[in-house]
Amino acid sequence: MAATRSFLRHKLIKFLLALYIGLFMIIWLVSSPIIKAQLTPYLAQEKLILAKESSIRYNPFLSKLTLSDISLSSEDEPSVAVFSLKNFEIKLTLFQLLFDEINIAQLQLNDGFIHIKQTDETLYVAGININKEATDTNKAPAENSEQLSFPYQLVLPKLLLENFEIALEKKSAHGKEKLHHLKLERIEVNELTATLIEQQANIVLQAQIDDTELNFSAQAHFQQGEGKIISDLALNNYPLVKLQPYLEPVSSLSGQLSLNSKQAIDILKSGLTITIESAQLSNKNLAAKVNQQELTLASFVQNFSNVIVTVEQDELTNIQGTSDIKLAQASINQEDNSKQLLSFDNLLMEDISFHFIEQPSIKIADLIIDDIAASKLNDQQQLPALVTLKQFSINDINLTKTNLAVNEIILDTLQSDVIVLKDKVIANLIKLAQEESAAQAQASQPNEQQLAQQPSQQQSAIDNAFTFTLNKFALVNDNKVVLTDNSVEPVVTRTLNIEKLDLGRISNDAASQEKTPFHFAGKSNKYAHFNLTGHIQPFVDVPNYHVEGYLKELSLVALSSYLKKAASLEVKTGQLSTDLNINLIGDELDGNMLLHLQGLETGIVDSHEAGSLIEQGALPLNMALGMLKDRNGAVELDVPVSGSTSDPKFGLSSILTLITQKAIMSATQDYLITTFVPYANIVSVAITAGEFALKLRFDDVDYQVKQIEPESAQQKYMQDFIALMQDKKDTKVTICAISVPEDIGLPAGKALTDPANIKRLKELGEQREHAFKDYVIEHGKIESSRLLLCAPKIDSSKGAKPRIALSV
């Protein structure tokens, strides 16, 4: 009997075991078709098709769900998958439920794909309308919810996802546009534990976003909604062209962006704090086009350290940290790079510290820009840039909401070439191409409400006035401005060499009443020089300006081009020196100018021929000037300057009165004879018809055809001339070269009319004058201010010889 019961017991156990195994086998076998059948109606609602080869099986023996060869496609495009998954496995340890633990022993995904499509109206994820899902969720009736009670702990020792791809596509009227492609090469989550009270995990991500390597790792720990995330992020050489669709003003964009950072995020119930230990944002080969301007930048690097960002109650309450910036090979171009608005080789901003706690503040130790060029045409003309600068530097910058303070601004080796065309347009000045719509133009017109608000806005601006302070501004090393003016005849070329330009402390702070000193000195062309000092006070209630100094040896021949149209006269020779001391208080001008004119002679416009009546001083202006000349042939005028700058009629003391007073003072023939007879071999004294005063005349120095430098034939004359100049230290002489047609291979005896030939002969004459003056200065140690240059002449008469004429 006992044996029978034992037999039956074994039979029952085997039956139950077989039933258990059989039932589980049936579940395992039919799980896939049953699950697929249940999914089909739901997928049909979304117009999705599940591939026949897709398999979804549940293994009750191992408590394991396996998905393989999953493929979803849209009914509109059955051949194109919107979601696919090669393999998905999740395994649970069910007996752990007895200990209030959901233990996922295995969770793995391999070789997946999901398609995301954005249209103008909605967003589709794996073919499912996300906007519709959100709308349905919003329509669901609200239920009274109580705090969840979930006693279980989720434990996931390891989650592994490999080779999962996400494609983002945009569909518009222009067709399909691939925006982004994300390939998750590996996502690994380790040691994940989670309850309603506490969660923690370690995450490692290796991916490619738009074929760019992305690495991310993080450690997270939360307790009762508060916690900390420590992470590292690295993105290398991301193609910026992928960001261009989101930047509406930018029509084209290229370059590679990189980001490396280490940060920690502290999450509290009141807000969060982000601490960036170190970060580097860099860019290579940036090119961006906005309207008709294009920016190119070879490299950009910005480093951050010790950055803290605090958000409390959804408001940004604090940003602080340090940074530095480096840029290399930057340029802003216009019209397909044919016009370069601005370029520089390097830009460096060092020791940047910033904080936005109550009063925002930014401090920059140094801002240095090297090799700047502005307004340069890249065409066949190859015109020089309007402005070039070896280095621009600013140090100790402190910027707040209401104040900008700068210690020094230094410009090193400023070079400017200004080329004026015949129509008064600056040839190498590039105008910005602007596109302003009618709406923008209309928006720029103030309406009545805006006009009514202006008084209160102006008062607010006064109450919140922005102040700036600069301790020093200076130009250093070689600074030069070259003006080439083609709008006048002859063409004017003027070079200004700035030897010193300093500006002292200046501020628009109402509490600052100090004067700002300045010093401006330099040379114009070869011999003219100036030195000006003074002070300015532009921001006080009554502005105050003062300048004093001098301008010496300015050749007036260069001004002749600008006098032609105004007075139908041209300056044949002359030199200006002046001492000035002038004050401007408000709009009231007061001061004094001492003018010294040496050898000033005028003539009819375009009289190039030597020996004409004009050269003999037959004009009334020349006669008046002759009355003013002292025994050395100079005119000195002490001119008081006064009046209001708001009334242009403020004037100089009467010139006619000065002429009358000076007319009775002329040199005598005896004085000239007594003074210069010892040098009778090179000078002679004569009374010229039509002249008020006696004239001292030097004999001409004959030259050979095409000769430039003084040679042995002129040796005796040069020695005697140098001896006279060394003996008579107050004598000043005008040097005037006279060229002949043979100098440029043309026959004599016929007046020249071709402007090109006249220009060539004048240029040759200028070379002779400079060579003569340089010889006298070098061998006789004569001051350059005693040797004046004139506009070269031409003698086209038969038998004429090239020569240099000297006069006092």
From TrEMBL:
Q: Name one Pfam family in it.
A: DUF748
* UniProtKB keywords: Membrane, Transmembrane, Transmembrane helix
TM ranges: 12-31
| InterPro entries per UniProt | DUF748 (IPR008023)
Indicate whether Transmembrane appears among the record's keywords: yes
Name it: DUF748 domain-containing protein
The organism of origin for this protein: Litorilituus sediminis
